[in-house]
Amino acid sequence: MTPPPDNIIATETLGSTVPMKTVHVRSWGCQMNVYDSQRMVDLLAPLGYRPVDRADGADIVILNTCHIREKATEKLFSELGRLKETKQAKAASGGNMILAVAGCVAQAEGPVIMARARHVDIVVGPQSYHSLPELVARASRAKGEPILMTDFPVESKFDHLPEEASPRGVSAFLTIQEGCDKFCAFCVVPYTRGAEYSRPPGDILVEAARLALSGVRELTLLGQNVNAYHGGARDGTIWTLGQLIRAVAEIPGIDRIRYTTSHPNDMDDALIAAHAQVPALMPFLHLPVQSGSDRILARMNRKHSAADYLAVIERLRAARPDIALSSDFIVGFPGETEKDFQATLDLVVAVGFAQAYSFKYSPRPGTPASSAADAVPEAVKSERLARLQATILKGQMRFNQASVGQIVPVLLDRAGSRPGQLHGRSPHMQSVHVAAPVHLLGRIVSVRIEDGRALSLTGSLIQTEPGGMVT
Ligand code: SF4
Fold it and tell me: Does pTM top 0.90 for this prediction?
């Protein structure tokens, strides 16, 4: 799953009679961590905790962690070092700050965190954060006695999550599936998030309808292996992702649907047909491939070849010719030769990705590849990463420049980087900047694209009908 920027959860909306206490949540890693962090805030709201965007002075601080790359764990420990002083400052002013570590590093390295950072009060895994209210109560009573909760409970945490305590804006994430059974040789997800679990479609539709009522127009359905979704309905039928997307598209107010992250082997006919037949399903797909070399794909245990991947792309483009594609790449996987790497570059050029993420291989504790003997030297990894990113950027530039002169529907989701400018997303997930009045935030407007750069587009609003430029 691809990481959005570091995320601070903070809103000022909770009117209630319970004495106001504050919670600061810092979220690293993927979109699912963002969703989980929002749900943690929802869980603490009924106890009177209001989210704030700074740790200083907060009553609870939660670090929601990612375990995908080596740096992520070190980042956690340096942050915990800083928060030790923040916690001491709170104690010095007669208060008590509860410090919690959640997410995938908590799941994978709970005892290590408790040993290395004794000022941490709670360590809770991704499958157990629904117990936060009880854990906070215990931590408040047992000052200084750390609590570790990293079970994989039988009951699903989703059954214990409350309604949203604060609006999510116009674009929201919704977890529908969690965990993974693929066991790619470099990946920690099957160990930190557990086996694949698909939420019942009825529960997902109820949550989606609530989000639509709160003003959400674009919904991104989340899963570590989202297109392996197989939700059990009350009538005993098993729903696939294609079926679920059709049902979500029926919800009034939901104009745009996206989903992430997928595996090439689970792009079934129903899902590809949905790309052709469901207008609300956006023509954009993030489909990680990791490498273009069959030898490396086999060593990664990806269970498909480069040709299999290209065949999926062909089926997608036959169904939705204007679909934009994104992917993930790892360079420097153990044993990768120059020939293997060249195969990756060739695949990038052959597909013509609209965007893609690329990383140097970093061994993750407990994964099969981490014990490989034939590691690629760091300098070679860096040199290959630079070449790959240059190739990807060229493709991104070409894709965005092809939009110049077109009129594109853009969902305006926040203020732009310049005064009087708003930011939005095209159906192809392109970042678009346009001069527009703030009252158009949350609306889908028509924009004529005037400039295309590697990472974004700029354009001007189009007056489509008298007084209305909004669709
Ligand atoms: S498909 Fe592979 S890379 Fe993706 S979450 Fe599963 S094990 Fe990890």
Answer: yes
